[in-house]
Records
---
Amino acid sequence: MRRVQFIELHDQPWFPSSLRDYVTDSLQFGFNLLKSYAPVGPLLQRAIDSTCSISIVDMCSGGGGPWLDLCRKLQGRNPGGYLSSLQIRLTDKYPNLKAFQNARLASENQITFYPGPVDATKVPRELKGLRTMFTSFHHFLPDDARAVLQDAVDAGEGVAIFEITRRAWSTIGLTFAFVFLLFIGTLWIRPFRWARLLWTYLVPILPVVLLFDGVVSCLRTYGPRELREMVEKVTANEYQWEIGEHATGMAPITYLIGYPRASAGEL
């Protein structure tokens, strides 16, 4: 199945911010419920160890990413090689500040956030740490996706990208099941909002957007071969790259991990 470049509705500047927050809240609820990214914990820990990172800069965080679960399982590693507590900072071009604040409270401040908009192709240099992305790299056109990687390299930061979506009929089928789960589970999403019920059940805009964007996400996702071709065009002579698909109980998770070779040599 060839990659299709198309828009996702909730990514568009004209999409109402309140509805966008409901969309990201729903995705967050589903990913947390299913612990969708728990299987990549060992891969992510290896990236943290390879970059001697004690901090994470999560980009395109949406409703908070998988961090409430992962932050309890991962440990930072300081330049001396010793284990340390890991600090996670959430960022987004359209930050869902209420969701970010909830994540900070639930994690007892292990998860914090950057309050302003952050362009993943031009991350502010004060945001230092291993850069992560979950279910979001496919949002970028090839040139912009390459710019995301190049910006991390130019800043001398490691990058770890994970995509649970795939260009496969089986994954598209799972997307329909996932959206149905979100439709049923809307009553349990917190904080409770009457407006969320309105836009889910009475005027079902949210399920339509979630389904449309979910299918488009699958069609837009880069496969390992395309990621390798992209990396070959990044100016990064001293970087180590790892690209592949990590097997899970459901669908494999595509990953791209890159870090300076010098960092790996310090361990």
---
Amino acid sequence: MILHDKEIAELLSHCRKIVKEQGKYILKFWDKIGKTSYKNLRDVVTNIDVEVEEKLRNKLHGLLPEAGFIVEEGKTEKKKIYNWVIDPIDGTKNYANQMPIFVSQIALVENNGPILGLVYNPVSDQLFSAAKNQGTYLNNKKCLIKKTILPKSAIIDVDFGGNNQFNSWKFSVLSKLTETFYRIRILGGIFTAYLTTGAIDGYVVLDNSIKQVDCLPNIIIAQEAGLGVDYVIAPIGQKFLVMANHSIFPTLKQILTKNL
């Protein structure tokens, strides 16, 4: 079975309600976190992550039983054509330490590409949502990037990554970005959906281990808003994700692909 635009739109409508409901649950229990565990020295998992992921999984299975799951905390069980991508709390380190910078996000992937995606900020009650061929919305308002921006006035968010691989090259890229653009932020990708509002103008991932749960919801949101989205091959032989306003998109890609 292949989903058509009308069916995808109906799924998105249901997903909006589901994601907001679970996002409000996340916010409600922000100061009531019970059990926590650690994947590594700082990568924390809370009982709320686990609970919300399971709730989302159950509700999304009810919407599309033939789809599999790619998840952050539990067991990934992929199917051939359709898979739900779930990150119950992106920014759990912030959430667990009382910093109001976290979102809940999901996507539906057809083969290897997202066909709908949602990112919900429960603190500000902002829901970014998009579906293939149907545009991107912030709450009930359609997002469409029309303005042209010059590099000298552009703000770029960089996900630098947490490992020590390719650091020499990463620092050279960071230096070139700093020379080229107005401001560089290193926010870890948590504000990627705000490319659609102009709060940031570009997003560069210098982490070759980025997870699908982190990027796929934002990819469809960026694409449907009219932003440039691509994976580029760097001189070090690694593939990195770039998203940006089309007026600075070629400049960002050139910085990542040329020998510095």
---
Amino acid sequence: MSPFPRPDYAVLRRYDPERAPVRLDLSDNTNLWGTHPAALARVRAADTDDLARYPDLYADVLRNAVSERFGVDPDCVTTGAGSDDVLDSAFRSSYAPGARMTYAAPTFSMVEPFARMNGIEAQAVQWPQAEADPGLLLVGEPDLVYVCRPNNPTGGFTPRSWIDALLSARGDDGPLILVDEAYADFAEETLLPDAPMIPKLLVARTASKAYGLAGMRCGYAVGSSDVALEIEKSRGPYKVAGLAAEAAAAAVRDEGGWMKGVISETLTNRDRLSSELSARGRTPLPSRANFLLFPAPSGASRPDALALRAAGVGVRPFSGIPDMGDGLRVTVGPWDMMEDFLSILDATFGRTT
């Protein structure tokens, strides 16, 4: 008889980022300027049918919006309840007895749990080694390779030449390459338009970050039509709420051009915050995302994050970062929020320069 629970679930725990309510929450990399106005207008216009009826089987309104925005065929687009759902479905579609995946670490914290949930063995390759030789991610012939671009939590951005080298080393018969572009809007560079032409490549995006729709749980991905079909089969129907798909579609189309101003201000404030942190002797890693990772003031990230939270600001602690050790990740937002954060940082830990 099959055991319940599965033995390999013993090490899994419910996700708990230890985020007690706080006055200024800069811990989750969402859009601190708010929700895309077109998406918000669609939600406010909701009627009974939006809530009482089942949504489209596969969120066609969002698939069509992505198709129009990036110039890809709708059959090359798949959707999910957040990009997490898309990633989970991609993992599930890659499962076979003894399946393996590799990923460059450190990266998105849910990658290893998603692999375990789907019966896949996960193997980390440390980023400094993977950066020098992307072929290391192919050692042992994995069934799936995960790359986060820009990377969470470091903000680092693998150049297109690195991606091309990985794809070239893999060949057309190698593993599925899953590129997570949750923060690509802030990098102003994407693989999405090219994904349908590259065999066994899936590029995933989310509405939770740049579009300010984290509460709606909506994401999408682009690959060749055969790859998108396998993800759709793995995910199943009715997974994206109709109102979420409509709101995300309005944001993706961005017909009023709201995103341009938000992205521009985010990048300006990111550079300004980086300079302010550097002036305090807390130089962050270079980032192409809407966050910065800087050294933990005391060298211990979790106690430092708890100290800041007690003072009114939430940041995310990380440990074991190459060339840094323990670090704190802070979301970039409007400058008044950044000034508030810097004031609390100085009051809590003092200025080192």
